[in-house]
């Protein structure tokens, strides 16, 4: 007989068959015995010591579990469970033949420690063994957990003492700091240390050879200690000799006497530790999953409301979920010998070489730059999916919103101010009767740590931009859909409808911020809410196929539904207004204006008990298609704005047409109408434009913007101009100094990237079909067009000398064109082939000979364009090369901008300033960052700026670094930030004796 490793026992279970255990393994879960599951006791389990002769008859089955190879041994031997248990406890040897009872599958639970043992470990043979070295499997771990729970098992092992192992200790190799635990299922929490019954080398105190009674006890996953000793047993490595089923051992007679009872004690001692590890593993995985899901929820907060991403966020959550064996995000490492830095994105190493001008990398310090940003101008307006969001204030400013910013635009002075206290997209707006106070509601957002926040309403002073009241945190779900101030009592109350399934209607005291009443309104969409101008106890809501008339008394709200009677019920009641007579006029999706009045009850229709109803008094066909807006003028007339026909009609109090005009098709259907100064009108359209004018003089745009997701951005090399392109197929040139649209052009396909020629005379635009165009910046005419592949283009970039154009495509290639004849002629020069994923960013060297490029799989490659577009294999030689621009998001000079745990898509765009002092970053969490350049240390600090309501897709500095342009994705916003030096302002203020403060 021979000494058996306690972890090497064959186990037989009656309740859980091998096939079910294998099925459990295929599902990737571990079956744990419990009272409700497969609780094991002495009647359910037989475990026995099997002699070598029996072992040699085992059949072996190899399977895959958790991505590693595991070996499961099946024994055909059977015996009576109770008899086997008693014999084992008494220390007797196992009978040579099975006796009685029903046979059950037997599993051999083995172990391994170290890295080598997983190299095809399921079939590797020990040099002294006659069979393969078994490795652990999830069924064995599950069986031990179930066995350790057995009450019958506990009653037999509690009083057992164990003699020392007489075998001398073997030399054991210690793990290095970088080695990790390995297990078949991939989970380090289910790996357990070597349970070999040979003790550690003799130390202080009694040794096993001196007759001390020692037992094994698993203290932690890092060490195995003798119960009465203090020295931990070093970990086994793959090079450690481990007895196999067929190996011969010395002093086997002594080992035979103690093998069984030692193993029982090991099982007993490991019970608590195994369950502790299991729970710790579950918590580790859950925490890692929650962390990644929390990070993605930060991206998805605006996505849920704006549909900001077409890609599936659930798939990203799945991709980011670590396996049970994952140790979380890996930190960047510094290699002094190779002069390199290695960072990790999604576990993939990215090596970057340190330039020779960095003498001591460890002493490099990253600090906040003295430059800061201040929001100067916001281009665009949110009209495509919002209504009643345009008003004229007492200050003469027009108030509206886009993304997370409420804009106050002074038409005459052509200036903007911004209310920036919202944390996510603003959805609705109401103006107090005093025309000074404003209420704005937002969607659910996230805080600076990515934790979800409830939507809320801010009441603020438009003259000071100070928040007067925040109401409703924790009371609204998803977002705030509609707002209205009361009029009869001078705006003392605010009515709110949220975006929950029940569309909760609530009334709030504006001064105290306290809730006065609340009720579920309807499960259908609610589009608008208003107080009666003559009685604050009357409230009206309308939306999908309904209009409700509410009565508010104390804390109670009661409703009465409007009766359509003989009239066809429209799909939506889009808007309503109170006319001079106090009647309610509604505009619906059928193009009708309905007049509602309170009438006596029709007992035949409504039954007994009904006292009064609100019914349609008059119907008027006013427009083709939707009526999105109704506006009561100071003279008592009513304006209606049509959707499909784009007409604005002025109606007399008796609903007779007085005036009529049509908005040009370019600006889109009318979304909202507001009364301006005198006879001026303010119009918001569904194509995100704000118009100003009158019936007599027509309408002209004062604010314009894109209507779909923005990606392409380029700044002029010498003028205050920048160009944007979008999925709406529009290319727009903007004046950054005048804050106006210089020109726009409509393309056949969507534009995704752009770049100016160094001369500024032409601009190249890459499209989503593989085509790219060259436009004349003066005439806006297309002077050249080419096609490279059939996939979208992600980047186009002219060389500094203007002689080449590089085109990066999603087909993994970079196409190089030579430029001639005053930027009018383009000829294919070569193609850079070597990336294994789509091109994301590229930059030219200052001498126009080399290109640095990034790809979707986080590669950094360098190309010799002048030498024939060859890939430079030795990336170390490119470490000192100077780059004309730096927009690549991966590289030594910028890797510090990446936060810990980044998944590779967290940063969409990056741009170094022309003076090479700072680098601006557009991230996937609606933020713009400003870092010091170079930014070559992990966790570098930055100035962070909010305002965008979805992922920020691009950033670029203007030619003189005076401004930074940033673009939102689905929020279609363009922000122009003024950059200033806070240290310079501080020094100037100090020298003049004035108080020091930033703008």
Automatic annotation (TrEMBL):
WD repeats lie at residues 703-734, 786-827, 832-865, 945-987. InterPro entries: Beta-prop_EML-like_2nd (IPR055442), Beta-prop_EML_1st (IPR055439), HELP (IPR005108), WD40/YVTN_repeat-like_dom_sf (IPR015943), WD40_repeat_dom_sf (IPR036322), WD40_rpt (IPR001680), WD_repeat_EMAP (IPR050630). One of its GO terms (molecular function) is microtubule binding. The chain crosses the membrane at residues 390-411. It is found in: Cytoplasm, Cytoskeleton, Spindle; Midbody. Residues 415-693 form the EML-like first beta-propeller domain. Belongs to the WD repeat EMAP family. This is Echinoderm microtubule-associated protein-like 3 isoform X4. It comes from Geotrypetes seraphini.
């Amino acid at each position: 007989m021979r000494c058996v490793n306690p972890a090497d026992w064959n186990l037989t279970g009656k309740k859980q068959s091998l096939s079910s255990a294998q099925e459990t393994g295929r599902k990737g879960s571990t079956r744990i015995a419990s009272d409700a599951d497969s609780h094991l006791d002495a009647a359910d389990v037989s475990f026995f010591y099997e002699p070598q002769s029996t072992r040699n008859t085992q059949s072996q089955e190899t399977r895959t579990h958790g991505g590693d190879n595991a070996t499961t041994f099946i024994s055909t031997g059977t015996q009576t469970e109770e008899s086997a248990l008693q014999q084992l406890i008494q220390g007797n040897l196992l009978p040579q033949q099975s006796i009685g009872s029903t046979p059950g599958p037997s599993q051999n639970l083995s172990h391994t420690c170290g890295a080598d043992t997983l190299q095809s470990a399921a079939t590797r043979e020990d040099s002294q063994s006659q069979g393969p070295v078994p490795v652990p499997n999830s069924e064995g771990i599950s069986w031990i957990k179930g066995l350790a729970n057995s009450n019958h098992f506990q009653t037999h092992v509690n009083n057992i003492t164990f003699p020392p192992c007489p075998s001398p200790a073997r030399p054991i190799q210690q793990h290095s700091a970088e080695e990790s635990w390995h297990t078949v299922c991939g989970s380090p929490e289910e790996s357990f240390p070597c349970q070999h019954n040979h003790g550690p080398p003799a130390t202080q105190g009694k040794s096993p050879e001196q007759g001390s009674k020692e037992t094994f006890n698993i203290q932690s996953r890092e060490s195995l200690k003798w119960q009465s000793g203090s020295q931990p047993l070093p970990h086994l490595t793959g090079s450690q000799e481990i007895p196999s089923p067929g190996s011969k051992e010395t002093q086997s007679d002594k080992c035979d006497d103690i093998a069984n009872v030692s193993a029982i004690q090991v099982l007993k001692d490991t019970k608590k530790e195994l369950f502790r590890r299991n729970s710790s593993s579950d918590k580790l995985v859950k925490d890692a999953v929650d962390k990644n899901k929390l990070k993605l929820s930060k991206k998805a907060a605006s996505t849920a409301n704006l549909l900001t991403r077409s890609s599936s966020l659930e798939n990203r959550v799945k991709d980011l979920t670590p396996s049970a064996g994952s140790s979380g995000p890996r930190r960047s490492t510094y290699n002094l010998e190779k002069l390199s830095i290695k960072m990790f994105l999604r576990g993939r190493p990215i090596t970057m070489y340190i330039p020779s001008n960095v003498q001591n990398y460890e002493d490099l310090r990253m600090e906040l730059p003295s430059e800061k940003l201040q929001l100067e101008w916001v281009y665009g307006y949110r009209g495509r999916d919002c209504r009643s969001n345009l008003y004229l204030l007492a200050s003469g400013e027009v108030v509206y919103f886009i993304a997370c910013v409420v804009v106050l635009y002074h038409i005459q002075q052509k200036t903007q101010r911004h209310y920036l206290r919202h944390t996510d997209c603003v959805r609705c707006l109401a103006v107090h009767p005093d025309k000074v106070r404003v209420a704005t509601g937002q969607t659910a957002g996230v805080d600076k740590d990515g934790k979800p926040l409830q939507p809320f309403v801010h009441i603020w002073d438009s003259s000071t931009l100070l928040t007067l009241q925040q109401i409703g945190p924790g009371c609204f779900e998803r977002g705030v859909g509609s707002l209205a101030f009361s009029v009869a009592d001078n705006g003392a109350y605010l009515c709110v409808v949220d975006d929950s399934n029940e569309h909760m209607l609530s009334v709030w005291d504006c001064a105290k911020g306290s809730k006065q009443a609340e009720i579920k309104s309807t499960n259908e969409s609610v589009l608008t809410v208003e107080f009666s101008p003559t009685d604050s106890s009357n409230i009206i809501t309308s939306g999908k196929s309904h209009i409700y008339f509410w009565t508010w008394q104390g804390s109670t709200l009661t409703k009465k539904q409007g009766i359509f009677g003989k009239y066809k019920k429209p799909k939506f009641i889009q808007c309503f207004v109170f006319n001079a007579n106090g009647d309610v006029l509604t505009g619906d999706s059928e193009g009708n204006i309905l007049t509602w009045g309170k009438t006596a009850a029709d007992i035949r229709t409504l039954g007994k008990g009904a006292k009064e109803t609100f019914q349609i008094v008059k119907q008027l066909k006013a427009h083709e298609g939707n009526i999105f807006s109704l506006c009561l003028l100071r003279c008592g007339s009513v304006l209606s704005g049509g959707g499909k026909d784009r007409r604005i009609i002025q109606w007399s109090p008796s609903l007779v047409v007085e005036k009529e005009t049509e908005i040009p098709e370019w600006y889109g259907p009318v979304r909202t109408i507001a009364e301006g100064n005198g006879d001026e009108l303010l119009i918001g359209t569904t194509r995100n434009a704000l118009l100003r004018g009158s019936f007599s003089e027509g309408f002209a745009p004062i604010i314009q913007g894109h209507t779909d997701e923005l990606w392409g951005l380029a700044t002029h090399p010498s003028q205050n101009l920048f160009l944007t392109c979008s999925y709406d197929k529009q290319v727009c040139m903007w004046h950054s100094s005048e804050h106006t649209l210089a020109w726009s052009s409509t393309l056949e396909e969507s534009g995704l990237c752009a770049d100016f020629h160094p001369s500024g005379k032409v601009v190249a635009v890459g499209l989503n079909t593989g085509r790219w165009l060259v436009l004349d910046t003066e005439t806006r005419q297309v002077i050249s067009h080419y096609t490279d592949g059939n996939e979208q283009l992600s980047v186009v970039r002219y060389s500094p000398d203007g002689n080449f154009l590089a085109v990066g495509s999603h087909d993994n290639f970079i196409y190089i064109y030579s430029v001639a004849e005053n930027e009018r002629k383009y000829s294919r020069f070569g193609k850079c082939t070597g990336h294994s994923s789509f091109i994301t960013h590229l930059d030219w060297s200052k001498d126009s000979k080399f290109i640095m490029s990034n790809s979707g799989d986080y590669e950094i490659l360098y190309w010799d364009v002048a030498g024939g577009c060859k890939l430079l294999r030795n990336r170390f030689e490119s470490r000192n090369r100077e780059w004309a621009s730096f927009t690549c998001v991966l590289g030594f000079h910028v890797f510090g901008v990446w936060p810990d745990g980044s998944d590779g898509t967290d940063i969409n765009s990056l741009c170094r300033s022309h003076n090479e002092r700072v680098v601006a970053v557009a991230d996937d969490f609606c933020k713009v960052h400003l870092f010091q350049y170079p930014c070559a240390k992990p966790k570098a600090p930055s100035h962070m700026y909010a305002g965008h309501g979805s992922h920020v897709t691009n950033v670029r500095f203007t030619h003189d670094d005076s401004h930074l342009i940033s673009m939102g994705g689905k929020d279609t916003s363009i922000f122009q930030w003024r950059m200033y030096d806070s240290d310079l302002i501080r020094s100037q203020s100090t020298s003049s004796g004035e108080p020091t403060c930033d703008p």
